[in-house]
Amino acid sequence: MRGDKIDVLYNNIKHAFFQPCDNEMIILIHFTLKNPVLWGKRKYQDIQFYTEVGEITTDLGKYHHMQDRDDVQSEQLEREMRKRLNQVFQNFCDKVVRQTNDAFDFDVPFNELGFFGVPFRSSCTLKPTSSCLVNLSEWVRVFI
C-alpha cells in the first residue's frame, strides 16, 4: 500500500496469526477483523503483512563460475535473514500482546499437522492453529 496508514483497533481484531518462515518462503502476520475497515472504496475484512524471505523461483539457466562457494554463501545469508526476520516479527507480536495486557495472542499454525486439501478449486496445505484451520501463504486465504 506504499506507505499508506490504516488504523486498526485492537478490539476489532477477531483472529491474529503469526506464521514464521521456518518452512515457508514468506513470513507473515495476518489479522481477521470483526468489522471491515474501509480503504479507498473497498472494505477489507482481512489484513496481512508479509515479506519474502528467499527466492521463490530459481533460474536454472544461470551460469556460475564459482557455483559451490556462491551457493554456500547465499544459503548462509538466507539462514541469517530468516533468523533476523523471525526475531523482528516475533518482537512485534510480543509488544502487541504486552500492550494489550494479554487481551489476545497470536496463533501460530502447526506445520507438522498440516495436510493437503482442496477448499476451493486448487490444492493447498491446510494447517491447524489453536482456534482455526488456515492457509495463509496462498493467494486465496482459507479460514475455517
CATH 2nd-level architecture of the domain at 10-56 and 66-108: Roll
What integer value in Å does the Rg equal? 18 Å
Enumerate how many helices there are, as a single number.
Answer: 1
- Along the chain, the helix and strand elements come as EEEHEEEE
Strand coverage percent? 25-35%
Structural class: alpha+beta
How would you sum up the global shape?
A: globular
Task: Give average pLDDT, whole number.
Answer: 84
Largest β-sheet summary: 4 strands, antiparallel
Classified by CATH, the class of the domain at 10-56 and 66-108 is Mainly Beta
Measured as a percent range, the helix fraction is 10-25%
Q: In what order do the strands lie side by side in the largest sheet?
A: 4-5-6-7
Total strands: 7
Q: What is CATH's topology name of the domain at 10-56 and 66-108?
A: PH-domain like
Uncertain segments are: none
- CA distance, first residue to last residue: 27 Å
